[in-house]
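Deliverable D4.2, example record:
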Amino acid sequence: MRRTGVSSGGPRTKLLVRSIFNFVLGLGASIGLTFLAPPAFAQVNQPSAPLAATRAPVDQQPPDQQLTGSISGTVVDKSGAVVVGARVTLMGADQFPPQDALSGEFGQFSFAGVFPGSFRIRIAAAGFSAQVFSGTLHPGEAYLAPPSSLAPAAVSTTVQVTVSQTELAQEQVKAQEKQRIVGVFPNFYVSYVPDAVPLSPKQKFQLAWKTTIDPVTFALVGVSAGVQQAQNDFSGYGQGALGYAKRFGATYTDEATSTFLGSALLPSLLKQDPRYFYKGSGSKVSRTLYAIANSVICKGDNGRWQPNYSAILGGLASGAISNLYYPPKDRGVALVFESTAIGTAETAVLNILQEFLLKKFTPNAQKQSSSQTTKGH
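Output generated by the structure prediction step:
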């Protein structure tokens, strides 16, 4: 019986078995050598003593020196010119206290030993607006800040507008020229501003002219002339249209001369104020006495009370001039003084009415009192 696989496969089987056996023997020898000589292998793998000694200082370096960095930059203006002496302040969470430096002759600045992290730099220089910028410094980085272009500081100009005394007085005069009793009859010579600005000579003449040419003045003169003719006053003028015209002309001339002399010309020369200054406070007795006294006293342009020479002399001068056009029997020195005294008494009565009654019937009086006082302060 033929044995299959022996004659044909025998030698290869033996070779395979022998190869496996040799491999196992070689492996066993290698392992044995390994366990038998460990010191030799250890010496091969261990580093030499000098090398270990060289590396030790590197591992022992302080961590801060490894992490800090530097920041530098240049300060210039909008035109690109360097700014010398600018104060540069470095601020940050880890930069305490803040560090300061001044820009050098080329506008440069620098900070060394800066801890990493976010930071802010503020740059200030005389004549320029302060500038602040921020950034982040990484460990060991040499941070170069972009050129800091400073803008010129904003120039603030304070303009104080003041109104001159003349301008303020003009405003007050314009307000007085709007004062009309019941909105019709002129009430120009009353000031409801207790500390009103003194009038200039020009303004005194302006107020006199405004009063003299007012249409209501002509109407009142016409009524007065009609009453005189009806009562046959100044009989030397006669009756009819001619007599009425003479009476009208005489009455209007009286009004014009007394106004210009007593309220414009003499007050300008003697520096006195022709207006009545409304009191409006205090007891009725004190206000009454104040009103009566103001028929013979007045406020000077210097703000002090003084005898009203302007009104008294103006009345006498106007009466003297009237001797030129009144009928002969109505002339004379005695008549001049009598008319002046009567005029002074009429002024006292009118002042009392101004103090207690007429303001209520003058629509613009209260408005002027509040607005002009505000402007004056």
